Structure formats: structure tokens, C-alpha cells
Amino acid sequence: MMRLTATALASFVLAGCASFSQDGGFNTVEQLTKERVGQTPTYQRTAERSDFAKARVAGLLKLPLTADSVVEIALLNNRDLQASYAELGIAESDLVRAGRLANPSFSFGRLSGGGAVEIDRAVLFDVLGLFIMPLAKEVEQRRFEQTQLQAVYETVGVAGEARKAFVEAVTAQQFVAYFGQVKEAADASNELAKRMVAAGNFNKLAQMREQSFYSDATAQLARAQHQALAARERLTRVLALGGGQLEFKLPGRLPDLPAAPAEPKDAEQTAMDTRLDVLMAKRATESTAKSLGLTKTTRFINVLHVGYQNQSNTGETRKNGYEVELELPLFDFGSARVARAEATYMQSVNRTAQVAINARSEVRESYSAYRTAYDLARHYRDEVVPLRKRISDENLLRYNGMLASVFELLADSKDQISSVTGAVEALRDYWVAETNLQIALTGRSPGSASVMGPTTATAFSQSAH
Fold first, then answer.
1. Phi, psi of 298 (to 5 degrees)
2. What is the chain's mean pLDDT, rounded?
3. Cβ(292)–Cβ(345) under 8 Å?
């Protein structure tokens, strides 16, 4: 009996070692996130951290936004991220509980009759829980690490969405400015055509063409204005802004194309080693394997309680002893639980293999999209736009030399629309593809990595002919 009591006391001492960490496991999330996006997230568990985040966001919003600042704002301000970080606390609670012995149970019984009273008392301890505690704690530790990876996974996703929403918002705003200029030119051309028709110096068909171009320019400007508003609102949602924060400023244009494209070495292996969805799939499989080992350990003994018991009767000496409560495997020998665990393990193995296959494929696709976008943007920058400028300069010289009419000069301006919009779209596609490539290498699936097709801006420029 003394040995049983000592065992129970020792178990309580061991259980007391399980406690919560000071950072709640968030230091790992910070480190892994910084390695992937260059920014550190903040878990706002206290009023001080929340106040700091609000002040930092307010300071960043006073300046024109950049790709880096929108990521920082998103990591500080996005409420979905803070909700996902709360999962760390839940997972750590399960981990701490796995390292503590279950509370003992106490039973009390009293029988009386015929002038006699019989009292039974018992205290039961979950001995099996003590035996399997190391395995159970290891399983929960892996689940906790999985939750940390999931938090990083969500953070990287928000950072990528913020960058791409920023690129789209700046591009849409740039199109509004450009198509405003196109409309002004179309308005002037249409008004001049009307006056020349009235003076008998212009035919009606040519005048209607100028009027049609003006109508198309007006419609396209309206579409561009809505697209700019929609893109700005998408950025607003990712950054979780509201109220007085909505008056943020965007730069006038996207950053210039880098001098040379990135050429990551061993891209597929990098994805296998650092990509979050691959790591999560591997950890899930490892955790399932450990759970299978735990299931086999407890296959024949599912419930085992040992405890102290005493009994006292009126007029008799109190009797002391112990009680063992054991579930007998008469009908279920645990084979069903083991079979279920094995099937779950094989399911996890196959899913991990598919995640790895998808990751490798997405890295290849993302890099192809990245190089294509870079080459196209460089082509527009070095070939198409300079050529259109030389043509425009030549037409202007012809006009100044009275060798070309004003309408020929305006027609040349129409021809420039496709080149300008194509250059802007190509630069936009590059920065989106660059973000997708970085996500595909170390983060998660970027979704479709295809280079974007012509937008309504390009479609308009083509219809202008």
C-alpha cells in the first residue's frame, strides 16, 4: 500500500512539470515567417501589443504605401491572422494536459440497517495514463508543431495576398490616370471633327469614327475607375482597414523591372525542404505513425485504474486495501482501432506524396510564369515602347513640317494605347509572378501561376483600330 501511495505521489510530481511556455510557441512562427516573407508577425495577446500594432499601422498609413509596408500592415492588422494564432493556445493547452495525469476519482458509499452502518471509501488513479504519458505527450507535441506550421502557412498566405492586392491596386490606379488622358484626347478629337464637318472640311464617316472612339474612351474610363475602386477595396480587406484608415495613398506607378531575373538553384529541392504545406504533410504523417504506435500500446488494456480503498462497519475494525478497475477485452480486442489507425496512416502517406508532387509541379510552373513575365516586361520596356516613341516623334516632325494632319497625329496616339497598356500589364504580371514564385518555393500553393491575359484595357486599345 505504501508503494502504491508513493507511485501516486510521484505521478503528481511528474505531472507538475508540464507547464505553459512564455511565448506560447509564437517565437517559432515569427522565425519561420521572417525567413519566408522578410516580415515578423505579432500575436496581440495583450493590450500593450495591440496598442503598439495600432500605432505602427497609423504611422505606415501616413506615407505612400509600398509592397513591403502593405505586408507589414497586413501582418499587424489582419484579424483572421490573429484568430488563427489563437489556435496555438488551444494546441498548447492540449500539450500541457497530455503531460499531466488525469485527476483521481473518489467514491463513497454508506449502507445502514439493523443498527449497523457500513461505509466504503475509495480513491482511484489512472495508472495507464501514467504509463502512456510520454507517448501521449509526444503525439500532442507533434500536433502543437503542426499548429505552428499552420499559423505560418496562414501568415505567408496573407502576406502574398497583400503584395498581389497592392500590385493590382497600383496598376488599376495607373490605368485610371492613363485612360483619363485618352478620354481628353478623344474629346478634343471629337470636338475638332464636329467643327470641321460643320465647316465642310471633313466627311461625315470620318467624324463618326472620331465620335465612336470618344464613346469607347468614355466607357473604358468608367470601367477603369470601377476596377480601381474594386482593387483598392480588395487591398483594404486584406489590410483590414476601416474608418479614417481608408484614405491611404498609393504610389503613381509600379516599381521598375529588376536588371536581371532571379534564378533559384535547386528550386524543387528547396520546396521539398522548406515549403510549408510539404512540411505540414510530413509532420501529419509522422504524427499519425506515432498515434498508431500508441494505439498498439493500448490495444489490450484500454482502461486501468488503481486506487486505495477502505471499509468500516459499526463495531468493527476498519478494513484497508486497494482496488483495481480493468476493462476486459472479451468482445473488442482492439483490432478495429488498430485497423482504423493503419488505414489513417496509409491515407496520410498517400496525401503527403501527392502534396510533394503538386509542390514540385507548381514550382516549375511558377518559375516558367515568372521568366515569361520578366521577358515580356523587358520586351515592352526595351523594344515596344521605345519603337512607339520613335514613331510618335517622327509623326510629330511630319506634323510640324505640315506633312501630316492633326487627325493623323491623333491616329498615332490611338495606336500607342496598346503599347502603353501592354507595358503596364506586363510589369504588373511580373510582380504578381514574382510573388507567386516566392510563395511556391517556401510557402504554399500560389494557385494559378499563369501569366495574365489581356485585360479590358488591352481589349479597348485593340478595338480602337
1. -100, 25
2. 79
3. yes
What are the DSSP calls for 34-77, one per residue? HHHHS-------SHHHHHHHHHHHHHHHTS---HHHHHHHHHHH
Question: How many residues in total does the chain contain?
Answer: 465
Return the amino acid letter for 439. I
Average pLDDT over residues 429-452: 84
Predicted local confidence at residue 412, as pLDDT = 63
Q: Which residues contact 215 (CB under 8 A, 6 or more apart)?
A: none
Quote the distance between the C-alpha of residue 441 and its chain's center.
Answer: 14
The number of helices, as runs of H, and strands, as runs of E, in the chain is 14, 4
Instruction: Output the nine-digit C-alpha cell for 127.
Output: 495508472
Task: Give the span between the Cα atoms of 419 and 411, in whole angstroms.
Answer: 14
> Out of 123-137, 183-197, 262-276, 314-328, which region has the weakest mean confidence (pLDDT)?
314-328
Render pLDDT for 275-334 as a digit per residue (tens, 0 to 9).
Answer: 999 999 888 888 777 766 655 544 444 444 455 555 555 556 665 655 555 454 544 445
Query: Is residue 303 classed as helix, strand or coil in its secondary structure?
Result: coil
Lay out the sheet containing 319-326: strands in order across: 105-113, 116-126, 304-313, 319-326
Q: How confident is the model at residue 18 (pLDDT cuts 50, 70, 90)?
A: low
Q: How far apart are CA 374 and CA 380, in angstroms?
A: 10
Question: How does DSSP classify residue 327?
Answer: -
Q: Which residues contact 95 (CB under 8 A, 6 or more apart)?
A: 18, 137, 140, 141, 143, 144
DSSP code at position 320: E
Q: Do 137 and 98 touch, CB atoms closer than 8 A?
A: yes
In the Cβ-directed half-sphere of 93, how many Cα atoms lie within 13 Å? 5
d(Cα 146, Cα 281) in Å, to the nearest integer?
A: 9
Contact between 458 and 422 under an 8 Å Cβ cutoff? The reply is: yes
